[in-house]
């Protein structure tokens, strides 16, 4: 432990704060597996205000007419409820359940019905005034890495899918380019 500076001789400090038992806490690291059907895409992000639920809902329906989704937001003060909205009851249920499992303040989930994808709304989501950031947008199996303290929970990151098995070769490059054209993302 490094001693930086103290107003009181002999008192240990770190980053300008006195080190005492009162301001040091234990932290537990856990992972929470995202529960969803394999084909379902979702976005996990961080936001900062109760208005998020209405603003994200309005953004999604304006970006993609007829979009099917479920949204859940973990309120971090006041009643600390999971606030929710959406257009698809099954996706709403997925969003609610995963939000309750992760239980990190100001985090939000959007689950998309089949045939709807994050790529079509991701920039619109990032531009919602309350959205601070996006942790992931994926259909892969995912685990959320969480730090738990006496105060609450924080998302440290996301394990998204599996690790790479090697470098793509010429055949793999041709397959990737062909797939993007086949599904209409490239001409």
Number of strands: 10
H-E string: EEEEHEEHEHEEEH
Distance between the termini: 58 Å
- SS element count, helices: 4
Care to give the gist of this entry?
With 187 residues, the protein is α+β, with helices and mostly antiparallel strands. The chain has four helices and ten strands.
Task: Explain what this protein looks like in three dimensions.
A hairpin with a 4-residue loop joins strand 9 (142-148) and strand 10. 24% of the residues lie in helices and 28% in strands. The chain contains 4 helices and 10 strands. The protein is globular, with a radius of gyration of 21 Å. It has 187 residues and is α+β, with helices and mostly antiparallel strands. The protein has a 5-stranded antiparallel beta sheet, with helices on both faces. Strands 3-9-10 form a 3-stranded antiparallel beta sheet, with no helix packed on it. The protein has a two-stranded antiparallel sheet with strand order 1-2.
Reconstruct the topology from this structure:
Blueprint: E1 13-14, E2 17-18, E3 28-33, E4 42-46, H1 52-63, E5 69-74, E6 82-86, H2 89-102, E7 107-112, H3 122-126, E8 133-138, E9 142-148, E10 153-160, H4 170-182
Antiparallel strand pairs: 1-2, 3-9, 4-7, 4-8, 5-6, 5-7, 9-10
Features of this protein?
187 residues, alpha+beta, 5-stranded antiparallel beta sheet, 3-stranded antiparallel beta sheet, 10 strands
């Amino acid at each position: 432990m490094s001693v930086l500076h103290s107003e009181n001789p002999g008192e240990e400090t770190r980053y300008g704060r006195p080190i005492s038992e009162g301001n040091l806490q234990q932290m537990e690291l856990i992972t929470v597996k995202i529960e969803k059907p394999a084909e379902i895409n979702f976005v996990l992000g961080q936001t900062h205000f109760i208005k998020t639920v209405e603003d994200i809902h309005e953004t999604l329906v304006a970006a993609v007419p007829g979009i099917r989704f479920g949204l859940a937001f973990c309120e971090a003060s006041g009643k600390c409820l999971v606030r929710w909205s959406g257009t698809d009851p099954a996706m709403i249920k997925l969003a609610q359940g995963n939000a309750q499992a992760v239980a990190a303040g100001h985090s939000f989930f959007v689950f998309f019905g089949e045939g709807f994808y994050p790529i079509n709304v991701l920039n619109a989501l990032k531009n919602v005034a309350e959205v601070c950031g996006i942790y992931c947008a994926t259909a892969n199996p995912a685990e959320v890495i969480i730090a738990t303290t006496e105060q609450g929970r924080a998302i440290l990151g996301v394990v998204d899918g599996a690790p790479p098995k090697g470098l793509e070769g010429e055949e793999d490059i041709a397959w990737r380019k062909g797939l993007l054209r086949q599904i209409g993302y490239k001409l």
